[in-house]
Specification:
By secondary structure, the protein is mostly beta strands. It is built from one helix and twelve strands. A hairpin with a 3-residue loop joins strand 2 and strand 3.
Length: 149
């Protein structure tokens, strides 16, 4: 997991060309005006999902196998639980078509709060529990850039 501000994204270009393209897309688009849903960047290799929702008290952990996430907060803030995949128990088996499985964790590991202008990079080993209230429910707008590994 990596947490940082978009202004420092260039630091992570060396991970792969796909990460560079994903971060460049975030920097070069007016994210406030983009509509919800999927936005193509490089076919199935890199794409973005714009989401608007209310944060909540709880959610299941999730993990991905084929893609890493760059979760960038456009408006608002939320907490995201993060733990190593090996700490979790599978509650809903892996769906290859959606590249997702759902998990549970007996004892919470730790939470990160992401605020406007910040991002988390989550790799397949980073089971994560997004959309959690920071202190009270609030409306957020977030983009998740999916990077094929």
């Amino acid at each position: 997991m990596i947490k940082d501000k978009l202004e420092h994204a260039k630091t992570y270009y060396g991970i792969s060309e796909n990460f560079k393209k994903g971060f460049e897309w975030l920097k070069n688009n007016d994210l406030d005006t983009l509509t919800e849903g999927r936005h193509g960047i490089d076919g199935d290799n890199i794409y973005a999902n714009i989401q608007s929702y209310e944060t909540k008290d709880s959610a299941p952990y999730e993990a991905h196998r084929e893609y890493a996430d760059i979760q960038f907060m456009i408006k608002g803030e939320e907490r995201i639980g993060v733990t190593d995949y090996s700490n979790c128990t599978v509650t809903e088996t892996y769906n290859k078509g959606k590249d997702i499985e759902f998990l549970s964790l007996d004892k919470e590991d730790f939470f990160e709060t992401i605020k406007e202008g910040e991002f988390l990079v989550l790799f397949p080993q980073d089971a994560h529990k997004p959309s959690i209230n920071p202190d009270k429910k609030q409306h957020v707008k977030k983009v998740v850039v999916k990077i094929k590994l």
